[in-house]
Amino acid sequence: DHWLLCTDGRIEDFGPMESCPDVGEVIDAKGMNVLPGAIEMHIHGADGVDAMDADMEYIEKISEHLPGTGSTSFLATTMTAPIEDIERALMNLADYRYVAGARMLGIHQEGPFISKKHPGAQDPKHILVPDREAIHHLQDISGNQIRLITYAPEEDDGEFLDALKALDTIPSAGHTDATFETLKQAQALGLSHVTHLYNGMRGLHHREPGTVGFSYMSDAYVELISDGIHSTPEMVKLAFDVITPDRLVMITDAMRAQGLPDGEYDLGGQTVHVAGKEARLADGTLAGSVLTMKQAVRNMREFTGCGWTDIVRMSAYNPAVELGLTDSKGVIRKGADADLVIYDEDADLKHTIIGGKMYF
Ligand code: FE
After folding, report:
1. Which residue in 297, 277, 291 sits closest to 347, CA to CA?
2. What is the pTM (predicted TM-score) of this model?
3. pLDDT tens, position by position, 200-244
4. Which of 31, 2, 34 is nearest to 338 (CA)?
5. pLDDT above 90 covers what percent of the chain?
6. 289 C-alpha to center of ligand 1: Å?
7. What crossing angle do the helices spanning 56-65 and 83-94 adopt, rounded to 10°?
8. Residue 295 and residue 308: Cα distance in Å, rounded?
C-alpha cells in the first residue's frame, strides 16, 4: 500500500498510497516486495565469462546477465592463478567504465595468498605466501579497485594485514587453516570478513573451534552460499540462527556456467564438470557454483523461514555497510540509487531496476 518514486536514477520519495503523486510511468507492484537490489560480493562469472578472462567482454556480459538473477551490483572476483594472469585480469578491470546493467563496485581478489591445506578449486600450484609488496603492486595495477581480499591469516607474518588496512581493502579469512586464536588476534587488528563459511576452512572442533567457530562467535561478516550443496539446508539454518542476518552475507560464488547448460567449463585453468546444480573438478572437489541470487533468496527463505527484511540485510544492506556505500546502495531511502528488485509473494523475481532503468 505504498508508492516509491524514482527520478534521474535515484529514489526521490516514497509514502502511503493516499498521497501517491500522479507522474510518469507506473509499475504496479501491488502485493509484491520491493527491495534494494542484491550486491554480490563473491562472483567469478556467469553466462560463459569469468573475471580471469581479462577481457572486456566479461564486463559487458556479466553486467547484462546479472539483473535477470536479482543482482544490481557486484565485486568482480578473481582467483588463484599464475601471478601474470592475475595481473592481466586486474589490469583489464582497471579499465572498467560503467555503461549499463549491473554495476561493478570493485574487485574481490580470492587468493593467491591462501593455505595449501584448503585450496578447494584454487590451483595449489600457484598459491603464494602473503606479501606486503605484492599486494601494494596488485592494488596499484587494479586502479585501486580491490575492495576485499580472501587470504589465509595464519600465513601472514603480521605485515600483510597492516598493508590491507592501509590500502582500505577488507581482509577476509578464507581457504585457511587458521585456528580460533589466530583469527581472534587478526580480528583485533582489523580482520572483518570470512569467505564462504564451511568451505575451504578449518572446521569446528570442540577443543579447537577453528575458522567455523570463529565465524559463529566473532563480529565478522560471514559469506554463505545457500545452494544446499556447499552447505546442507540444516547447516544454512544453523548459520542463520547463530550468526544471524546482522552478520551473514549471501553470495553465489558463481562461475561461468551459471545460466548455461550442463557440460565442461574452465575455472582458473582447471576443468569443471557441471551437472544440474553442482560444479565439480574431476576429483569431486566443489568448484564454484551455478547458483543465482534469486535462487539463493528462495533457498534461504525455504531453509530458514526468514522474512524479507532478513533477505535485505544479508543480500544488500550488509555488503553496502562493508563497502561504505549505505548513502547510495543496499537501502531504500531518499536520494539513494534506484537499484531495486521486485519479488512476488511466491518469491519469484518480477523486475530488476538499476539506476531507475528497468533491466528485467
Ligand atoms: Fe573459494
Report:
1. 297
2. 0.97
3. 999 999 999 999 999 999 999 999 999 999 999 999 999 999 999
4. 34
5. 97
6. 10
7. 60
8. 14
SS3 content of the chain, % helix, strand, coil (to 5): 30, 25, 40
Residues with CB under 5 A from ligand 1 (ion): 120
> Residue 312 belongs to what H/E stretch?
helix 308-312
> What is the distance in A from the centroid of ligand 1 to the CA of 337?
30
| pLDDT per position as a tens digit, 74-120 | 999 999 999 999 999 999 999 999 999 999 999 999 999 999 999 99
- Separation of CA 78 and ligand 1 centre (Å): 10
Is the pLDDT at 246 greater than 90? The verdict is: yes
Q: Is the dihedral of CA 175, 277, 69, 236 positive or negative?
A: negative
Question: What is the whole-number distance in angstroms between the Cα of residue 199 and the centre of ligand 1?
Answer: 7
Q: What spacing in Å lies between the alpha carbon of 121 and ligand 1's midpoint?
A: 7
Crossing angle between the packed helical segments 83-94 and 132-141, to the nearest 10 degrees: 40
Secondary structure of 60-88 in the HEC alphabet? HHHHHHHHHHCEEEEEEEECCCCHHHHHH
DSSP 195: S
Contact 312, 339 (CB under 8 A): no
196 CA from centroid of ligand 1 (Å): 7
Ligand 1 center to 3 CA (angstroms): 40
CB 240 within 8 Å of CB 214: no
User: How many Å separate Cα 319 from the centre of its chain?
Assistant: 8
Q: For cell 553465489, name the residue.
A: 252
Region 12-24 average pLDDT: 93
Taking the centre of ligand 1 as the mean of its atom positions, its distance from the CA of residue 357, in whole angstroms, is 33
**What residues are annotated to the active site?**
253
Q: How many CB atoms lie within 10 A of CB 28?
A: 6
- Please say whether the beta carbons of 174 and 197 come within 8 A: no
Q: How long is the chain?
A: 360
> What are 270-315's pLDDT values in tens digits?
999 999 999 999 999 999 999 999 999 999 999 999 999 999 999 9
CA distance 41 to 329: 13
Residue 149 CB coordination number (10 Å): 28
Phi/psi of residue 70, each to 5°? Answer: 95, 10
